[in-house]
Amino acid sequence: MTPSLSRIAAGIMICACTIANAAAAESSDKHAFEVNVIVEGLDHPWGLAFLPEGGLLVTERAGRLRVVESGHLAPRPVAGLPDIVEQGQGGLMDVLLHSNFEQNRVIFLSFTARGDGGYGTEIARARFLGDHLEDVEIIFRALPKRRGGQHFGSRLAMLADGTLLITLGDRGHRPNGQNLGSHPGSIIRVNEDGTVPADNPFVLLDGVRPEIYTFGNRNVQGLALDRASGWVWAHEHGPQGGDEVNLIRAGTNYGWAEITYGRNYGTGTRIGAGARRNGVAEPAHQWTPSIAPSGLAFYDGDKFPEWHGNLFAGSLKFRMLSRLEIEDGVVVEKERLLANKLGRIRDVRQGPDGYLYLLTDEPNGVIARLEPVE
User: Fold this and answer.
1) Which backbone phi and psi does 349 adopt, to 5 degrees?
2) Using an 8 Å Cβ cutoff, are 317 and 305 in contact?
């Protein structure tokens, strides 16, 4: 283990000494485990990041960035955040540390902001200095903005080449999914300063937003990297049925709202032209009935060796965690864990210590850790 990872693991293990609650052992097909609640009292937490000196950053949807140190929630939120609007499903969403955070202290935040035409997802870049942010800069704005509070996305990931992936929702306007002239309904790729990478798939096409990396995405709220292969996985909301797990590839059309396994709410009538069409990516897995997808993590740690190479997907609706086994880019087995035992799972992350961490989307939300039972 590198010195920096050792410090992270040591800092997080301090939290183990201050666990608020410990659950009884849970069983699964591959591992017995227990769920330990580390922190309580969070207001609808949304995203989680691990600090290299130990401790955690966690976002609250209402617009607060919180610090957890030695298992305790710092009483005051981090100061200096940009203007954030809690609007429907939106607010302060994801937090991501720069891959070179130990040297530059840079973080990225995804959030909902007000502007011409209504509301939209924006991305801020800033330096985190313990109790406040400095050098805050908005590096991306999803356009056009729209009234209403639906489908903002938004997860963040930094790829090995240093570019940033940003997931967006269609903002409740179905035509956005196939409209390359608008950002909503897509996954975005930009450089860390917000400029457009020269190798983006649509960068040379007239009338297309050059930041678009994929399109036909209804509302992606989970994003996970397989660091060994470089594959990117996404967890996406469908309508009534048809939630998806997708393998993300540049320039790909994921179908919404012309091709979907989902149906119209209430009536159950078909949306678009059906579930399959040439030129549209088939999901690696689709959930019917809908589970209300949330966070997604690819497990490559050492604490659960039989889970190595599995995806872990959160569910808001069924308050559960799903374990997904993958072969050749397709989900071949799934197992439901923790159904109705913890709460609405909002985020799933693998910590640098090899444990799995969960956030619950509740007025009294928690950070919980899955640990193996020997």
Assistant:
1) -140, 145
2) no
Catalytic sites, residue numbers: 151
DSSP 154: -
Per DSSP, the residues of 286-314 read EESS---EEEEEE---SSSGGGTT-EEEE
- Look at residues 222, 236, 233, 166 and name the one whose alpha carbon lies nearest to residue 197: 166
Nearest to 12 by CA among 74, 54, 73: 54
d(CA 140, CA 128): 19
Q: What is the pTM of this model?
A: 0.93
DSSP string, 3-25: HHHHHHHHHHHHHHTT-SEEPPP
Q: Which residue has the tokens 């899955």?
A: 370
Cα–Cα distance measured from residue 154 to residue 185, given in angstroms and rounded to the nearest whole number: 11
- Per DSSP, the three-state class of 168 is coil
CA distances from 271 to 174, 261, 263, 280 (A): 10, 8, 6, 15
Angstrom distance (rounded) from CA 74 to CA 126: 20
Q: How many CA atoms lie within 13 A of 265 on its CB side?
A: 3
How many CB atoms sit inside 10 A of residue 148's CB?
14
pLDDT digit string (tens) for 106-159?
999 999 999 999 999 999 999 999 999 999 999 999 999 999 999 999 999 999
Q: Do 92 and 65 form a contact (C-beta atoms < 8 A)?
A: yes
Residue 200 near residue 212, CB atoms below 8 Å: yes
Element (H, E) at 236: strand 232-236
Opening angle at CA 184, ends 178 and 186, nearest 5: 65
d(CA 15, CA 7): 13
What pLDDT digit, counting tens, does each position of 10-63 carry? 444 434 433 344 456 898 899 999 999 999 999 999 999 999 999 999 999 999
pLDDT tens profile 53-84: 999 999 999 999 999 998 899 999 999 999 99
d(CA 264, CA 271): 6
